């Protein structure tokens, strides 16, 4: 027992990250209404690189309480530049109520929202937004996949993904008729990816790009029965509809066969 106590006594105590105590002290001082002391504490945390965006924002918040709106705007702007992303907090925190009346604050809040939702504000992620909606899907006679379907497409994950829910024959058609895809833009490759899965376990991985007015996906596939190439194209129409066109090749792209040709019409 004595040996264990000696080992515990010799073990180093866990220490807070540098600057954390200053940051916590600043929070307490702000709560107590000692705004000058809070500013000094947050500046000490900044010097030690602890939660710099948060410390900058809280310095600005203290200046709001001191009725120094210019310096408050200056510091919250620095916070936005440093990556501060708590947009909902900034839009609702009562300490910022006076600042929210200033148009300069609105511009900074927009920058903070871009930090919070980078995909939503990146035009590359928005090139497939024309597909978003609730649709009825009809197919031409050449398509073997049936005359009608329903599809619901929505943005997800703050605009970082587009999720499709597909119902061949309608929502009540039953098992063997449903599929889900998640579509994402990959900035590392400048390509779009679609992961498609059906309720019978079929999985297809597409890659493509928005080019010449259409989203163009491609795939190399191998099944127990065959292998080949696939192309899937989504094209927005002048009347607001979307055409989806799928082709398949089993001779390395020399010839192509239509496997699906459908028109998405928005539900009334």
Helix content: 25-40%
Strand content: 25-35%
The averaged pLDDT comes out at 91
Main sheet, how many strands, which sense, barrel? 10 strands, antiparallel, barrel
- Which stretches are low in confidence, meaning pLDDT under 50 for 5 or more residues running? 5-9
* Element string (H = helix, E = strand): HHHHHHHEEEEEEEEEE
CATH topology assignment of the largest domain? Lipocalin
In total, the number of domains comes to 2
Outline, from the CA principal axes?
Answer: elongated
Distance between the termini: 77 Å
**For this structure, what is the CATH homologous superfamily of the largest domain?**
Calycin beta-barrel core domain
Structural class: alpha+beta
Give the CATH class of the largest domain: Mainly Beta
**Helical segment count:** 7
Give the C-alpha Rg. 28 Å
CATH architecture of the largest domain: Beta Barrel
Let me know the number of strands: 10
Q: State the strand order across the main sheet.
A: 1-2-3-4-5-6-7-8-9-10
């Amino acid at each position: 027992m004595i040996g264990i106590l000696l080992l515990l006594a010799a073990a180093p105590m866990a220490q807070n990250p540098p600057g954390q105590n200053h940051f916590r002290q600043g929070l307490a001082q702000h709560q107590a209404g000692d705004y000058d002391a809070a500013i000094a504490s947050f500046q000490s945390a900044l010097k030690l690189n602890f939660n710099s965006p948060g410390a900058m924002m809280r310095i600005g918040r203290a200046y709001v309480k001191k009725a120094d709106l210019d310096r408050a705007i200056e510091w919250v702007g620095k916070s936005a530049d440093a990556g501060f992303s708590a947009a909902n907090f900034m839009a609702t925190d009562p300490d910022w109520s006076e600042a929210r009346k200033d148009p300069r604050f609105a511009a900074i809040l927009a920058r903070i929202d871009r930090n919070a939702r980078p995909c939503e504000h990146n035009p590359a992620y928005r090139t497939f937004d024309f597909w978003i909606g609730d649709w009825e899907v009809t197919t031409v006679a050449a398509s073997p996949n049936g005359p009608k379907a329903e599809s619901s497409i929505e943005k997800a994950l703050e605009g970082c993904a587009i999720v499709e829910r597909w119902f061949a024959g309608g929502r009540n058609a039953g098992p063997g008729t449903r599929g889900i895809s998640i579509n994402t833009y990959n900035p590392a490759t400048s390509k779009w990816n679609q992961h498609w899965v059906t309720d019978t376990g079929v999985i297809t991985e597409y890659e493509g790009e928005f080019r010449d007015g259409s989203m163009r996906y491609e795939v190399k596939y191998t099944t127990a029965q065959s292998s080949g190439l696939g192309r899937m194209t989504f094209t927005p129409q002048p009347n607001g509809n979307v055409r989806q066109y799928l082709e398949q090749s089993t001779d390395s792209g020399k010839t192509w066969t239509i496997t699906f040709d459908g028109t998405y019409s928005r539900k009334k």
